[in-house]
């Protein structure tokens, strides 16, 4: 399958990283901004989703503003246990990101939960899992930036 993006695909991807208009017909408004028909926009979005280029289109809320807490965690895992450890971490819907790294702490993941108690419960459960040598929590002291918009 050809993975090249058309100029229109790039314009669509750049536009979709901005706010979606809060109107009765948001796709029509975006299509108008891109000077294309709404049906063409929706078709291209469907194709980009099918190709896995767009994972999903969803509202992104600020966890802190609704009383949720978040943390970054790192784990030391034996190389032969990394896949099983990643699966153990991924079982929790509170996990938003999970990465293998080439460091002593070789599995890093982020959690967002409704309470500090829930975060602690998850971290403690993982600490008891024999696939993990050590799990540490690295809570944010100050937030500098939490946004991404990639020029395609």
From TrEMBL:
Catalytic activity from the UniProt record: siroheme + 2 H(+) = 12,18-didecarboxysiroheme + 2 CO2
Keyword Thylakoid: no
Keywords: Lyase
Enzyme nomenclature, EC number: 4.1.1.111
Coiled coil segments of this chain: none
Pfam family, any one: AsnC_trans_reg2
GO molecular function, one term: lyase activity
Pathway: Porphyrin-containing compound metabolism
Residue intervals of the Siroheme decarboxylase AsnC-like ligand binding domain: 65-145
Residue ranges of domain Siroheme decarboxylase NirL-like HTH in the record: 9-55
Domain of life: Bacteria
Family: Belongs to the Ahb/Nir family.
The name this protein goes by in its record: siroheme decarboxylase
Organism, as annotated: Candidatus Ghiorseimicrobium undicola
